[in-house]
């Protein structure tokens, strides 16, 4: 099962960026952390990607679709709240995706309450720090198994 963990702008330096909001885990820890917390899943292929560029994120998602990826966990960072282009891309590829955030965006500024990508997501998970990704992967695996993807 091929799952992409996609990270948008300003997520390269989590672990150092505003650690009171985003926690102390780095992006480099992410693979190890997810694999240590997901059990009993065979053939889990995790591809972790980060870009600060909207276009590069879309290029990556298109490639993932070409390569027949099974599911996406995406923390689109601030593009969550602004990017119709990213939302359009995630819609048409028709690969199940889960929107995640480290912080509880609903407890923050009102501009973070709007998500262009939530509508077509399987679901949204936020506020659990790095565990948002683990929960996202678990939920996605369940969804893919039900869907038979
Ligand atoms: C974030 C929340 C966004 O509002 C913010 O722009 C980010 C990180 C999160 O993981 O909590 O860059 O997606």
TrEMBL record:
Gene Ontology BP terms: amino acid biosynthetic process; aromatic amino acid family biosynthetic process; chorismate biosynthetic process; quinate catabolic process
Organism superkingdom: Bacteria
Top-rank EC class of the record's enzyme: lyase
Enzyme Commission code: 4.2.1.10
Alphabetized UniProt keyword annotations: Amino-acid biosynthesis, Aromatic amino acid biosynthesis, Lyase
Catalytic reactions of this protein: 3-dehydroquinate = 3-dehydroshikimate + H2O
InterPro entries in UniProt: DHquinase_II, DHquinase_II_sf
Pathway in which the depicted protein is active: Metabolic intermediate biosynthesis; chorismate biosynthesis; chorismate from D-erythrose 4-phosphate and phosphoenolpyruvate: step 3/7
Binding site for substrate: 75, 81, 88, 102-103, 112
Gene3D superfamilies in alphabetical order: Dehydroquinase, class II (3.40.50.9100)
Example GO molecular function: 3-dehydroquinate dehydratase activity
Site feature: Transition state stabilizer: 17
Residue positions of the active site: 22 (proton acceptor), 101 (proton donor)
Function: Catalyzes a trans-dehydration via an enolate intermediate.
Assembly with partners or alone: Homododecamer.
Stated family: Belongs to the type-II 3-dehydroquinase family.
Name recorded for this polypeptide: 3-dehydroquinate dehydratase
Taxonomic source organism: Desulfonauticus submarinus
The encoding gene: aroQ
């Amino acid at each position: 099962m091929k799952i992409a963990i996609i990270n948008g702008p300003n997520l390269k330096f989590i672990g150092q960026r505003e650690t009171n909001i985003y926690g102390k885990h780095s992006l480099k820890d992410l693979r190890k952390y997810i694999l240590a917390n997901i059990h009993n899943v065979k053939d889990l292929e995790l591809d972790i990607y980060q870009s600060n560029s909207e276009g590069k994120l879309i290029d990556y998602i298109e490639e993932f679709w070409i390569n027949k990826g099974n599911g996406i966990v995406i923390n689109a960072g601030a593009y969550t709240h602004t990017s119709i282009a990213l939302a359009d891309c995630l819609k048409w590829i028709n690969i199940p995706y889960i929107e995640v955030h480290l912080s509880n965006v609903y407890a923050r500024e009102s501009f973070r309450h709007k998500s262009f990508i939530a509508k077509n997501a399987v679901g949204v998970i936020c506020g659990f720090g790095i565990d948002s990704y683990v929960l996202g992967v678990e939920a996605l695996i369940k969804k893919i198994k039900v869907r038979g993807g």
